[in-house]
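Hi all, posting the design record for the shared folder.

TITLE: backbone redesign
STEP: 1 of 1
STRUCTURE INPUT:
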């Protein structure tokens, strides 16, 4: 394919791409979701399956996604269409882009609501709500927040506006500067939390919950969730990373970048787990308490440590930023497509996507209060959106990407764009992508859903 340049701009350096991709990857998935689904799915064995999925499916698919993005240099929808055409394949392959854009939009709708919780907690921490609080008290604060639709709506609206403001300006304008400072700060703060957890009575119990593998607790549904989460946490299967790859300069090695991003992402999730579970056990809480886990445990820890209000406030600010740098990448594929193909301005495209996702977000807000008993197969609207996107659409997206790159594209074009210097590693990647990743996804989905 002839060398292209992106109309949306390029990242100015390799490090900025790594920061942006890890900004997309590291988010609520690591700090909020990973701990709570680990708690719900019995701990160690689930964690192990998640790690296996990251290594065997996530990393190879991420490489493929970035490669496709950089080759096509457009929104995922148009990138897939252009590459399919160039490779003599059916235009239907642009369906990967469409399905991804839809998934990104659906995820954005609930992601913004949960990020709103983090915003709300900034002010609760700063206001000293948690001073000297008990476990029961912390859980009451959380129930009080999610039980109140007006409050959730206000924070959801604020977060959506923040997201749209960045996407409207273009993801590689301005955002770069913020990520550069905030990502390292988040690491430092997580390490402080880990240090605190280390001194708590529950530390060894927390660690053994996370890392002792009891396979009897692993159901076929847990396996689907572990695999789905490996896509969610790495921002894969919906074109977010493909869209970012489209802005990646040609001088950058995709392979190294992918390994760094995946390692950072996994590290953050594991540290979050190691900080949260000791607090769970030291306070006699339930690991399986669900989406409120982060919000019911960490405030307890902050209330007990010196300068806890300060660290707690800072922590939730950083969580909100981590969510922000992820949410923009959820909107990017569909917004970039609208700019290219409908010819609207970025500001208009971002606004319309934001308004629609905001509206749909009401379904998630009400799932925690007035509509909490509106369920389908025992799942609330939020649970349904989450399950459908994370556990079905993202793995399917990954499956099709693996098949497209492994089976449909001309091998020499793939090799030329990936430019891996080590031929052995390249072979390993290609074989995994061609056989192991698609079979793995299929096996887990078929086993878990049928
Ligand atoms: N990876 C992000 C997180 O862990 C969520 C996300 C998923 C972002 C898919 C973009 C695409 O929070």
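Okay, here is what came back for every position:
SEQUENCE:
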């Amino acid at each position: 394919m002839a060398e292209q340049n992106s109309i949306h701009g390029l990242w100015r350096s390799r490090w900025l791409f790594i920061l942006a991709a890890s900004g997309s990857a590291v988010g609520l998935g690591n700090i909020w979701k990973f701990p709570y689904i680990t708690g719900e799915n019995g701990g160690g064995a689930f964690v192990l399956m998640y790690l296996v999925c990251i290594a065997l499916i996530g990393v190879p698919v991420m490489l493929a996604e970035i490669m496709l993005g950089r080759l096509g240099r457009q929104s995922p929808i148009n990138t897939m269409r252009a590459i399919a055409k160039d490779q003599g394949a059916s235009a239907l392959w642009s369906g990967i882009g469409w399905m991804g854009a839809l998934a990104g939009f659906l995820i954005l709708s609930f992601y913004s609501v949960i990020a709103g919780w983090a915003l709300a907690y900034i002010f609760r921490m700063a206001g000293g709500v948690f001073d000297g609080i008990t476990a029961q008290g912390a859980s009451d604060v959380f129930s009080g927040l999610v039980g109140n639709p007006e409050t959730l709506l206000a924070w959801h609206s604020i977060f959506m506006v923040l997201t749209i403001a960045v996407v409207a300006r273009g993801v590689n304008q301005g955002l770069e500067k913020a990520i550069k400072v905030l990502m390292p700060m988040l690491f430092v703060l997580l390490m402080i939390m880990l240090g605190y957890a280390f001194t708590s009575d529950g530390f060894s119990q927390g660690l053994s919950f996370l890392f002792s593998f009891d396979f009897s607790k692993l159901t076929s549904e847990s396996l689907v969730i572990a695999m789905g989460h490996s896509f969610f946490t790495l921002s894969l299967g919906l074109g977010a990373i493909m869209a970012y790859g489209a802005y990646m300069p040609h001088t950058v090695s995709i392979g190294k970048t992918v390994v760094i991003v995946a390692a950072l992402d996994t590290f953050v999730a594991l540290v979050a787990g190691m900080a949260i579970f000791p607090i769970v056990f030291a306070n006699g809480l339930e690991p399986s308490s669900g989406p409120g886990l982060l919000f019911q445990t960490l405030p307890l820890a902050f209330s007990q440590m010196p300068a806890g209000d300060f660290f707690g406030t800072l922590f939730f600010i950083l969580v909100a930023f981590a969510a922000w740098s992820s949410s923009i990448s959820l909107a990017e594929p569909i917004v970039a497509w609208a700019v290219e193909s409908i010819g609207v301005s970025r500001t208009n495209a971002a606004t319309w996507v934001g308004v629609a996702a905001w509206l749909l977000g009401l379904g998630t807000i009400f799932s925690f209060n007035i509509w909490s008993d509106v369920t389908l197969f025992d799942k609330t609207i939020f649970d349904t959106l989450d399950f459908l996107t994370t556990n079905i659409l993202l793995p399917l997206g990954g499956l099709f990407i693996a098949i497209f790159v492994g089976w449909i594209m001309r091998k020499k074009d793939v090799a030329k764009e990936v430019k891996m210097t080590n031929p052995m590693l390249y072979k390993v990647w290609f074989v995994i992508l061609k056989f192991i990743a698609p079979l793995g996804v299929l096996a887990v989905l078929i086993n878990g859903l049928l």
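COMMENT: The CA atoms of residues 193 and 275 lie 6 Å apart.
Let me know if anyone wants the other runs.
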